[in-house]
Amino acid sequence: MPKGANGGIQLLLIHNVEHLGKQGDIVEVKSGYALNYLLPQGLATVATDHHKRMVEKHREKLRAIELEKLKSYRDMADELGKQSITIEANANDEGHLYGSVGAHEIVDALKGAGFTLAQDQIRLEGPLKELGLYTVKVHLHSEVDAALKVWVVPTVVTEEV
């Protein structure tokens, strides 16, 4: 395996890896990270001269694909910014919730609105424990975040007479 300047292994990233690099970048990582995570997950390959030449040849195509993805993420962020979701929760008379509203409930509510997101894309500063309006950060891409309005309202109880 090609060694880097700092004694690590040089890899070519096949996919974007957060906090490491973008697709097509040549990075140097410790051997354990390379052998136990990046290579088995298919996120990187060994940076041979052949692979480096291939990436240089296709860099424009990769850049165009990345720009297209970025545009779709920005469009989705605009759509999410226009959304306002409502989540019902049990609360006492002072507005404190008996439980809390977390990323799972927000993802479920977004699914009902036609958006499919993972729970780790919802960035809460803590669980929502009171009734009210919250602005929740949604992390779509390393360069794209969206702000989503989340209303936490009391559960409507219909009493039968």
Short description:
The chain is an alpha+beta fold. Helix content is 32%, strand content 31%.
Going across the biggest sheet, name each strand in turn.
Answer: 4-9-8-6
Terminal CA distance reads: 76 Å
Q: Whole-number average pLDDT?
A: 85
Radius of gyration: 22 Å
Helix and strand succession? EEHEHEEHEEEE
Total DSSP helices: 3
Shape: elongated
Characterize the biggest β-sheet: 4 strands, mixed
- Helix/sheet category: alpha+beta
Helicity level? 25-40%
How many β-strands, per DSSP? 9
Unreliable stretches (pLDDT < 50, length at least 5) are none
Fraction of residues in β-strands: 25-35%
Write up this protein.
The chain is an alpha+beta fold and 161 residues long. Helix content is 32%, strand content 31%. It has three helices and nine strands, in the order E-E-H-E-H-E-E-H-E-E-E-E. It has helices at 31-38, 49-82, 103-112; strands at residues 9-13, 26-29, 44-46, 84-89, 96-101, 122-123, 128-130, 132-141, 144-154. The strands form three sheets. It has a four-stranded mixed sheet. Strands 2-1-3 form a three-stranded antiparallel sheet. The chain has a two-stranded antiparallel sheet with strand order 5-7. Strand 8 (132-141) and strand 9 form a beta hairpin. It is elongated and about 65 Å long.
Question: Key terms for this structure?
Answer:
alpha+beta, four-stranded mixed beta sheet, three-stranded antiparallel beta sheet, 3 helices
What is this structure's SSE topology?
Elements: E1 9-13, E2 26-29, H1 31-38, E3 44-46, H2 49-82, E4 84-89, E5 96-101, H3 103-112, E6 122-123, E7 128-130, E8 132-141, E9 144-154
Parallel strand pairs: 4-9
Antiparallel strand pairs: 1-2, 1-3, 5-7, 6-8, 8-9
